[in-house]
Design brief:
The chain is α/β, with parallel strands linked by helices. It is 24% helix and 19% strand. It has a domain at 53-107. The protein has 3 helices and 6 strands.
Length: 116
């Protein structure tokens, strides 16, 4: 089975206590070693975050579909699915509303606190 896992960055892979007064960060960001293990097991890992915190990660980064310049998560997820065909598409993010972003792009959404 081919698996594509797209990740947000801030709060999903890396975290702080809060991103703003009303936005608590994920309590359990996905450890980098877990992501590396998934990649070694054959999952395609793609980062779909414009955050500078993602700089230096050893995985492809897609911010939007080709021809567009403004980051767009739905388009980035669709572009990832186009580039990396898979039987299972997962989107891991702690952003409010990203469950709907995943749905629009044809992905299954998981909050990092629930990604085990």
């Amino acid at each position: 089975m081919r698996v594509l896992i797209c990740f947000d960055c801030d709060g999903t892979i890396f975290t702080t206590d809060r991103f703003g007064p009303d936005v608590p960060a994920s309590q359990h960001p996905v450890p980098l070693e877990r992501i590396h293990a998934l990649a070694r097991a054959g999952a395609h890992i793609v980062v779909v975050s414009p955050s500078d915190a993602c700089d230096g990660l050893p995985y492809p980064r897609i911010l939007t579909s080709s021809g567009k310049t403004v980051p767009d998560r739905v388009e980035a997820l669709r572009e990832a699915a186009r580039r990396y065909p898979a039987d299972l598409h997962l989107y891991i993010s702690d952003n409010r509303g990203d469950d709907q972003v995943a749905l629009q792009a044809g992905f299954t959404y998981l909050h990092p606190d629930n990604f085990r």
